[in-house]
């Protein structure tokens, strides 16, 4: 299996995952825009196990449909590194794609909350766009 490591800006917090991503997506919801400070969040889901090194601060956010997401970020530099969904922790962890610092990382397959996508953001060819969250 291929191990990948994503880390925060200062290097204090990192997560190591194994294997190919279960999926790669981008989210344009307003919560992700505010959380990342960007116009969308790029995330890759990985199956457990994974290894976290360093100390993380947690933030719990409720999704539109009542799902609970625990976001982990570095208390030193503020990088939002990964999150889990309550009840699905044993299924996957979602990691910020940019934190892998790999320009060859696979492109997104899905784009959610496309209704909030900035009009100048162009999706890669073949990306499935969903007006909201398809789940």
TrEMBL record:
Keywords: Lyase, Metal-binding, Zinc. This is CENP-V/GFA domain-containing protein. It comes from Aminobacter niigataensis. The keyword Zinc applies. Belongs to the Gfa family. Pfam families: GFA (PF04828). Transmembrane segments: none annotated. PANTHER family: CENP-V_GFA DOMAIN-CONTAINING PROTEIN-RELATED, GFA DOMAIN-CONTAINING PROTEIN.
């Amino acid at each position: 299996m291929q191990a990948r490591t994503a880390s925060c800006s200062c290097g204090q917090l990192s997560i190591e995952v194994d294997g190919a991503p279960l999926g790669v997506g981008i989210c344009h919801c307003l919560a992700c825009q505010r959380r990342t400070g960007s116009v969308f969040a790029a995330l890759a889901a990985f199956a457990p196990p994974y290894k976290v090194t360093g100390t993380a601060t947690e933030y719990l956010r409720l999704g539109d449909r009542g799902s609970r997401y625990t976001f982990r970020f570095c208390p030193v530099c503020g990088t939002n590194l990964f999150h889990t969904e309550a009840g699905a922790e044993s299924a996957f962890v979602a990691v910020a794609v940019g934190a892998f610092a790999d320009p060859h990382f696979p492109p997104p397959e899905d784009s959610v909350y496309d209704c909030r996508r900035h009009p100048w953001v162009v999706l890669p060819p073949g990306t499935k766009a969903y007006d909201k969250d398809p789940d």
